[in-house]
Amino acid sequence: MTVSVMWFRADLRLHDHGALRSALEAGADGVVPLFVLDEHFPAENMPVRAAYLARLLADFDERIDGLHVVRGRPEVEVPRVVRETGAASVHVTPGHTPYALRRDARVAEALGDVPLVAADSSYAVAPGTVRKGDGSAYKVFTPWFRAWQAQGSHPPVTAVRAHAVPWVRPGGSTPLPDVREIEGVDLPPAGEQAARAHWRRWLDDHVDDYDSERDRPDLDTTSRMSVHLKWGTIHPRTLLADLAERSSAGARAYERQLAFREFYADVLHEWPGSAFGYYNRDYERMQYDEPAGDFEAWREGRTGFPFIDAGMRQLLAQGWMHNRVRMAVASFLVKDLHLEWTHGARWFRERLVDADLANNQHGWQWVAGCGTDAAPYFRVFNPVGQGRRFDPDGAYIRRWVPELRGVQGRGVHEPWTLPDPPADYPPPLVDHAQERLEALRRHDALGG
User: Thinking of the domain 281-443, which architecture would CATH place it in?
Assistant: First the structure.
């Protein structure tokens, strides 16, 4: 018998799955649908993502009528499954984070003569592919984007029918993690079918207006596909193929946002140290304050700046936050509270259901001034101005900050200026104008 192992990671789907196709071609007599609960990722460090993963596993287990789950170190567990089943190959969608690269190298070594076949990519264009004419990596998005567009991606892979696959399931499968609720968190629907249905609805209803509405959290018309892309329940190739059929400015703007996701993955691939360290190491010398009560107020949405607090409370309630608001709350932490970006990035990784390492870390560094931007530090987001511009009627604020629901008009953006400010809402934590000058002073102290 010729058996292969399909080692699923963040790609629990049947449509547009190159690695699964590869496993089917190699495993004429059967494919082992394997998932490893990697002990490198303890659930207590990522409670929101762990809860969502449990839902994903339950959904996929039902779809294929039995996912083989093991728990432990992949370099131990994957070879053990190979020995038990006599599999001749193991197939994966390659990972691109520093840990994923180390993990796969260890597994490949432990497998010995059994090949670890890295097929396809979780990106439309694999990180490390788009390069300048001299072979070097891009550091700026716009020229990279042009090259990425010229590179293109191949069409989506034909879907696999679950009942047509000769699945092989060895004994001793670990029970699936319990699907449990996270108190106060309303997680999005999980699984490939939910992802595809949500995408089709959004494509029909909102994509053509995306260019004009994408910065408006009050309208809540962005796609919210980040969680499905993070967990691989839909492939970006699928989205790009659908977008290519539309000529609207909204479709082109959304394509550009998908490209930003791939650009950050490319940057992380080329500079792996930027996963948890500085892309621009000059900013390691910046004067930062130590987290204290102000950090707790930021995490809990009690800064006294309504637009900032609305975003932080949305994060706590949904494990998600609108991208425009992510930039505003990040700027507030770094430029108004003078805390190191790593503290905020860590909190986002803990609380975001769509926490993607490359996107999260480099998004934070872009705001903090130490990332891939030509002159970024002088961009200091005004926490009141951001709300007035992108939540003009205060609908977003009133949704997430109930203390302000009774405040009429645009005074909701600066409730401390009202004749009778709400007694249960805190005053501003800082004076933004003064802290902006302090942030620029600290930057100047770096000495160029």
Answer: Orthogonal Bundle (1.10)
